[in-house]
Amino acid sequence: MASEEKSLNFIEQIIEEDLKSGLSQTKLHFRFPPEPNGYLHIGHASSIALNFGLGIDYQSPVNLRFDDTNPEKEEQEFVDAIKKDVEWLGYTWAEERYASDYFQQLYDWAVLLIKKDKAYVDSQSSEDMAIQKGTPSTVGTDSPFRNRSVEENLDLFERMKNGEFEAGTHILRAKIDMKSTNMLMRDPIMYRILHRHHHRTGDDWKIYPMYDWAHGQSDYLEEISHSFCTLEFLPHRELYDWFLDQIIDENQIRPKQREFARRNLSHTVVSKRKLQQLVKEKHVNGWDDPRMSTISGLRRRGYTAASLRNFANTIGIAKRDNLINVSVLEFCIREDLNKIAPRVMAVLDPVKLVITNYPEGKEEWLEAENNQEDENAGFRKVPFSRELYIEREDFLEEAPAKFFRLTLGKEVRLKNAYIIKGESVVKDAAGNITEIHVTYDTDSLSGSGTEASQRKVSGTLHWVSIQHAVEAEVRMYDRLFTDEAPDSYKEKNFLDFVNPNSLEIIKGFVEPSLATAQNEDKFQFQRLGYFTVDKDSTASKLVFNKTVGLKDAWEEKGKKEENSINNSLKDINKYFKVETKPERIAIESAIGESIKNVSTFSLLQNSLKKNINNNKASLLFAQFILKYSHLKSADFEEEDIKKLYTMSLRSESTYVRSKALLNLRDLENESFKTQFEDEILKLYSNPPKNASEREIEILSEMVKK
C-alpha cells in the first residue's frame, strides 16, 4: 500500500478508498497507454511516473500498452522510441501489449452490439453527419440509416471488414442518444474503413476501431483496475462506461477511468501534432533535437532520468490544468548534475593570455578536484603553461570598481593554479585585444600552503593551456520559444514565437582530460554551466550540448523586463509635470527604449490591457506600448485596442489625445481607422480648451486626408 508517512494525492486516495471498499490489492493493475504516432514528451514523463510509480508503491503490475488503432499515423519507429524512453526513465513493464492484439475480440463485440441493435452502419458523408449531430446547444437528429435492420447492418459490417468498400463510404456507430448533452454520446463512431498497412497486423484488417471503442475494452481485457488519463478525457468517461456496460462480465474486474490535469511546460509545446510540425518544417533537427520537449530531446540535451522523475514528483498530480515554469525542470537537472557532474575547465570565447615571467617551454601538471560535492570523485591533473586561453569577458582594460575579474594592475587567481596580475595588452589594427600580458606570483600555487597561496584576491578565473587545449564544437541551446505559452493565443500561430536564437554553434577549447569523453557524458564547465557530449561527437571532433546554465538567466531576464515596465509606469507621471517640450521628449525617449527592450509577448499584452482605464498616465503608457514595442496592433485583442483608442481620444489630456491620434494615423489597417472618424471630426470641429498646437496640427492633417 502507499506509504502513510506522506500525504496522498487524489489519485492515491481513490485507490485507498477502493481498497477499503473491498477491492483486493492483488487485483490492482495499472497501464501506460501511449499511441505510437510520435515521440514521448515531458507530459508523458509525468504520466509514466504516475502509473509506474503506483505500481512500485502498491507492488502491482503495470502494462505498457500501445493504442495502435490508427495506421495512418503510426510507425514501428515510434514504438521503439517509446520503449527506449520508458526503460531509460528507469521503469519496467509487466507485459507489453497492443490494442491490435484485440482486433478480433473488438470486432466480435461490435457484432454483438449490432445483434443487440446497439450499433448500426451509417452511410452518410462526414459533412452530413456533422450537421446531423447537432451542437452543444441544439440536439442532434437521427441518421437516416439509424434504423437499418440488424441483418443489413451485419452484412454491411462484414463487407466493410472484407474490404469491399472505399474509405469514407460507411462507418459503424453505436446507437446511444442523439439528444444527449454530452456530444460524445450522440451515436459515436466505433469503426471506420482504412485501406492502410498496419505495422503489426499488416494488411489483415480493412477496418480499424476508434480510440473510445478500443481503449476501455483493452483495459477490460487486461484486467486493468484503474485507468488514469488527462482531463481532456473527462467527457469520454460516460462513453467509456457505456461501452463496458455492453460487454462486461460481472465476475471480472471492471476498469475505472479517472482523470488528472495536464501539467504544461512553459516556453514549449507538448502537442504531438505541433511537435511533428516543428520536425517536418525543419524548425528543429528531428524529434530528438535538444530544444524539443520530447524525452529523447531532453536526454540528448543532457537531462538525466533522475531529474525527470524528480520533476514529475515535484509538480505532483492535480485536478486543474496548470502551466509549470520550465525553470522548475531546469532546477531539477541542476540539482542532479551538481551532485554527479565532474568539474572541468573550458573556454568558449577565448582570448590569449601570456604569463611573461613564466619560463618558455615549461609545463606543470596541477591537481584539480573533480567534484567538491562528491568526496569520492577524486582529483585529476591539468596542464599549465606560459600561454593560456581565458574568457574574453573576464578581462577589461578599464574596469569599474565592482569588476572582480582581471584588469590592468589588479590581481586574480587562476583556478587550481597561481595568482596573476594584469600588466599590458596587445591589440590589432582595429583596436581589438589579441593578447593580455600578465605576471604571476611564483609562490602562490593553490594548495601549496605558502603565505602567498593564501593571499585573498577579488576573483578566480578558469583557463585552458593553449598548448594542450582540445578544440570542441559547442552547441549553445536556449528555449525554443520566446513566449511562455506559445500555443495559447487564438490570433497567433505558435510558430510566430520560435526563438531565432535558440541555437548558437561556437568553437571552444576544453582541457585535455575531455579528449576521450563519450556520448551522454556530463560535465560542469566551471563558471559556465552544464554540458553533455552529443551523439554527433567523434574521436576527431568533440561536440558538446549546453544542458543548462549555472543560473536561471530567463528568470533574471523576466524580472528585469517586469522591473522595466514598472519603472516606466512610475516615470510616466513625470511627463505631465515637466514644463518644456525637450523634457517631455527626453522622458518619452527613455520610456520608449525601456519598452523596446521588453521581448515577452504576454508581458506586453497584459501591460497594455491593465492600462486601459480612465487614468491619463495609464492611457499614455498604453499608447507608448503601441508605438515602441515590437508588437503590432493586430497582436492585441481588437476589442482592447478599440477601447484604448476610444478612451484616449476622449481623455482630458492633450498629450494622451495627441499620442492616440499619431498612432492611429500610422496604422495600416484603414478599415479599423474608419471606426474613429466621428471622434476625430468631433475633436477637429470643437477642439478641447486645453488642446495643444501639436494636437490641432495632427487633427487638421488627419481630417484633410
UniProtKB/TrEMBL annotation:
One of its GO terms (molecular function) is ATP binding. The keyword Cell inner membrane does not apply. Signal peptide: none annotated. Gene3D superfamilies: HUPs, Ribosomal Protein L25, Chain P. It is an enzyme of class 6 (ligase). Residues 460-534 form the tRNA synthetases class I (E and Q) anti-codon binding domain. Residues 125-145 are annotated as: Disordered. Residues 28-338 form the Glutamyl/glutaminyl-tRNA synthetase class Ib catalytic domain. Keywords: Aminoacyl-tRNA synthetase, ATP-binding, Cytoplasm, Ligase, Nucleotide-binding, Protein biosynthesis. Belongs to the class-I aminoacyl-tRNA synthetase family. PANTHER family: GLUTAMATE--TRNA LIGASE, GLUTAMINE-TRNA LIGASE. This is Glutamine--tRNA ligase. It comes from Flavobacterium saccharophilum.
